[in-house]
Amino acid sequence: MTALPAAEIDAHSRPLMTGAQAVVRTLEDLGVRRIFGYPGGAIMPVYDALVGSKLEHILVRHEQAASFAADAQARLTGKAGVCLATSGPGATNLLTGIANAYMDSVPMVILTGQVPSTLMGTDAFQEVDVFGMSLPVVKHSMIVRHAEDIPATIREAFEIAEEGRPGPVLVDLPKDTLQASMAFETAMSAPTPAPSRASDDSIEEALSLLRAARRPVLYMGGGIALGHAVEAARDFMARTGIPTVATLKAIGCAHPDAQNYLGMLGMHGTRAANMAVQESDLLICCGARFDDRATGKPDQFAPHARIIHMDLDHAEIGKLRGVDAAIRGDLQDALARLDAGYLAIDSWRTLCRNRKQEFAFSYDAPGSGIYAPGLLKELSETAGDDFIAACDVGQHQMWVAQHCRFARPENHLTSAGLGAMGYGLPAGIGAALERPDSKVVTVTGDGSIMMNIQELATARRYGVPIRILLLDNASLGLVRQWQELFFDQNFSEIDLYDNPDFAEVARAFGVEAFTIHSRDEVPGAIQRLLNATGPILAHCLIDPRENVWPLVPPGKSNAEMMED
Amino acid sequence: MHNIRIQLAEREGALVRLLSNIERRGFIIESLHKTAAQNGVTDIAARITPRGERSLDVLTRQLSRLFDVMDVHTPMPAHMASHAMPPGEPSCRQPQ
Ligand SMILES: Cc1ncc(C[n+]2csc(CCOP(=O)(O)OP(=O)(O)O)c2C)c(N)n1
Ligand SMILES: [Mg+2]
Fold first, then answer.
1. pLDDT tens-digit profile of A378-421?
2. FRET pair for A417, CA 20 to 30 Å: which of A123, A521, B41, B85?
């Protein structure tokens, strides 16, 4: 924002500015460095104020991408990501990204332009009630009615988005409030409430369950990373030697080489993880929420287990499964206080470890074609602790979860709760802008990439160091797999035989690209990807018949896993 | 059928957010009463019925985490009270 001449202050020496300038100024004051957006009529005053501001604005090519990129940045930093769009179609295009952030508890502030207040409710041009449309998928939302409220409202939006269990907060900005003149006052932050601390009684109760357990399992969820409790969870694992499983969102919480870590549970989980949970007599659910993809048939999930449920959000406790002990509060603190010592469960631990070995994935697939699980494993191991994957949705996403090595949970960016195809490319852009020195790889499919392929233009414009690994099976593979297994091979609308030449497409956007077909090209491709300094796409042709194994069929218990 | 009483900050959208949450979480609103706001706070009293197997106790905590909701109160039949979780804490901030 251009500096205001000294004369433009009011009697209390507050600078006079427009509401739009106050939006920009408040974001700067809050320490926001980067926002993702797309201009249009109702938000134009903000775009006017952006010229010359300290904010870096990333122009995406579809508003959905702005919300996904902001989401990825937020997952990496723990601070609210910011996206910006105009009213009407701009706002509706953001909705999928808002829902994605809501489902995965990602802090995000969404700023939408709105038609002038006087026209709201009259079906004006580009008017949609985005406040109403987004209600079920926001943590909170506000409509600004007076320009003077802008600084306080935006500041409050950040606080709500980041405090407690994080989530998206939408601020709708009618154009007249953006254009009105106001006296700017820096809004004061409310003191951040300290996260609530679990009661001593609840910890004691949990400890006595833990001491009595013969077959305990730690079931880790996304709340561990959100609650900055990764180290505390690793300590707890090391201290107790407890066999541990993770949800899709908790991958990377356990140290990847931890002996007692059994992998992901649930539909595409490992057999060792699912068997441990099914046989456990005590399940410590830590920051997880008994999602149906993790539990399979709920009444047969961990049928012999008593439950300790630990969560900062007390509304999760008892939602889908009754509990024997509830620990409500900060997970980092609670895990540290759950001090049971090394558990005397040697035979159980050994059984779990042996199964981990017995059912470990093997990568010696026959043939000379590219074996995607092997490629992903090698890629992540070569990249090392700096490996960050931004996944799309489908078989490739499950292969990443099963076969990649992650040093930290934030490094695994995946649309878990919503399962939104189209996440991968914009999320990868958001991640690579935030962590240009890490090895950020978007792992996508031939279906998913087409949902936001226009973002190749964004990657190119800003020279984003993003590596795109496109696993092309010429089909909507995950849907095809289900049709094969559960719909009598009645294949319906999954064949993408006429895909474009994706390498050509990428080159048309000015993005370096190459295609590989055979396994012996894999090591070279990995090197080329990891050494790239700007956007690059590796188009990998894989066998369309490959499936994700093992698998718990829908409606079945996790004890009934299918193998290849 | 359950009785539920909610203290709500009188802010734009607060009422619709509250009611849509009750419905979305699987309860039918049978009857509803709202007082005029005093000092920015309004009282809502409703009679609600779960559509399927939904716990009132969980709903109470889901509502109490809403930003506009200051208190949720469910006078509970005595035979259920023993299974109940501690009541939800009011949300973190007072209305301006
Ligand atoms: C926006 C959206 N639409 C539809 C789906 C349903 N869906 C889940 S996976 C999938 C196929 C994905 O195909 P592709 O990206 O090629 O991945 P593959 O399974 O082949 O690896 C579909 C259609 C979804 N998850 N998201
Ligand atoms: Mg595919």
1. 999 999 999 999 999 999 999 999 999 999 999 999 999 999 99
2. B85
Amino acid at the residue A360: A
Instruction: Provide the pLDDT confidence category of residue B77 given band limits of 50, 70 and 90.
Output: low
- Tally Cβ neighbours within 10 Å of residue A269: 29
Q: How far apart are the CA of A411 and the centre of ligand 2, in A? A: 23
Which pTM value belongs to this model? 0.95
Range of the domain at B34: 2-78
**Cα torsion A138, A144, A147, A149: sign:** negative
CA dihedral (A413, A419, A425, A430) positive or negative:
negative
- Whether A165 and A312 have beta carbons less than 8 Å apart is answered as yes
Query: Helix or strand or coil: residue B84?
Result: coil
- Distance, in Å, from the CA atom of A182 to the CA atom of A223, rounded to the nearest integer, reads 41
Coil/strand/helix, residue A271: helix
Residue B89, in any domain of the structure: no
Asked if B24 and A136 come within 8 Å (Cβ–Cβ), the reply is yes
Task: Give the Å distances, CA to CA, from A51 to A20, A457, A484, B96.
Answer: 12, 22, 54, 34
Strands B2-9 and B41-50, how do they pair? antiparallel
Phi and psi at residue A417, in whole multiples of 5°?
-70, -40
Q: From the CA of B91, how many Å to the nearest CA of chain A?
A: 11
For the CA of A393, the nearest atom of ligand 1: 9
Give yes or no for a contact between A419 and A451, defined as CB atoms under 8 angstroms apart.
no
Q: Using CB atoms, pick whichever of B12, B13, B85 lies closest to residue A326.
A: B85
Task: Round to the nearest angstrom and report the end-to-end CA distance of chain A.
Answer: 60
pLDDT for position B88: 35
- Which B positions 63-82 lie with beta carbon below 8 A of chain A? 64-67
* Tokens encoding A89: 């179609």
The CATH number assigned to the domain holding B16 equals 3.30.70.260
* CB proximity B94 to A under 8 Å: no
Residue B87 has pLDDT above 50, yes or no: no
Predicted complex ipTM? 0.93
Domains of chain A: 16-183 (3.40.50.970), 200-358 (3.40.50.1220), 372-541 (3.40.50.970)
pLDDT of residue B89 exceeding 50, the answer is no
Q: How many residues does chain A have?
A: 564
Q: What is the pLDDT of residues A42-82, one digit of tens each?
A: 999 999 999 999 999 999 999 999 999 999 999 999 999 99
* Residue B54 included in any domain: yes
Measure the CA–CA gap between A302 and A196, rounded to whole angstroms.
29
Calculate mean pLDDT across residues B16-41: 97
Helix (H, G, I), strand (E, B) or coil at A428: helix
Among residues A407, A424, A430, A432, which one has the least CA distance to residue A469? Answer: A424
Residues 6+ apart with CB under 8 A from A299: none
Task: Mark yes or no for CB contact A145/B55 under 8 Å.
Answer: no
Q: How far apart are CA B17 and CA A136, in angstroms?
A: 8
User: Does residue B25 lie in a domain region?
Assistant: yes
Domain count, chain B: 1
* CB spacing of A315 vs B64 below 8 angstroms: yes
Q: Is A354 exposed, middle or buried (0-12, 13-18, 19+ CB in 10 A)?
A: exposed
Contact A413, A388 (CB under 8 A): yes
Closest residue in A to B84 (Cα–Cα): A318
| pLDDT score recorded for residue A5 | 52
Residue B88 covered by a domain: no
Q: Which ranges of A327-463 does DSSP label H, i.e. alpha helix?
A: 331-337, 346-358, 372-383, 395-403, 424-434, 456-461
**Rounded distance between C-alpha atoms, residue A344 and residue A88, angstroms:** 61
Give the H or E element holding residue A325. strand A325-328
